[in-house]
Known about the structure:
The structure is a single chain. The protein is built from 4 helices and 13 strands. With about 190 residues, it is an alpha+beta fold. The chain has one domain: Pseudouridine synthase (2-Layer Sandwich), CATH 3.30.2350.10. The longest helix has 9 residues, at about 80-90. About 30% of the residues are buried. The mean pLDDT is about 90.
Amino acid sequence: MKYILFYKPYAVLSQFTPEEGKQTLKDFGFPSGVYPVGRLDYDSEGLLLLTDDNEIKHTLTDPKFELPKTYLAQVERIPTEESLLRLRNDVVIEGKKTKPADVRLLVEEPDLPPRSVPIRFRKTVPTAWLELTIREGRNRQVRKMTAAIGHPTLRLVRIKIGNIGIDNLKPGEWKVLQKSDIGFPLLK
């Protein structure tokens, strides 16, 4: 079995199938037979696991396991405690309430590699960084949650899935893991 920890850069599709004008996983020289566990959107960055182990893939992606996924999100404006409480408890996206999330406002900007395309900068609109841990994986969920409370996400980086962290990888880098590195149990 093969297990790969990959730091997916911004503007890369989480697929091997070519799409005109867009970079895909095929461009990074992965061993044959591995596929992404879940996905990260084209405009998101960070930890992506690839494997040929269907049991691990199922455990990491099945919603019933509520596996925590942790993100760093740069948002427009500084959220109030009331806004953070909404993220923790009762954000409704697409007519359905999200599961409770762990959220904290970071005091300092996280130490992340620069993005290949810088975020838009507006002198009159400050930004803040949040650390969010969610236990479901709905389409563009973190972006939709922050938008729902009036703080659109400008940059989104996944740093952890369960107890697997991004380590010291830089965008575009990957390393082979052993099954023991994944460290079961992954659940809460």
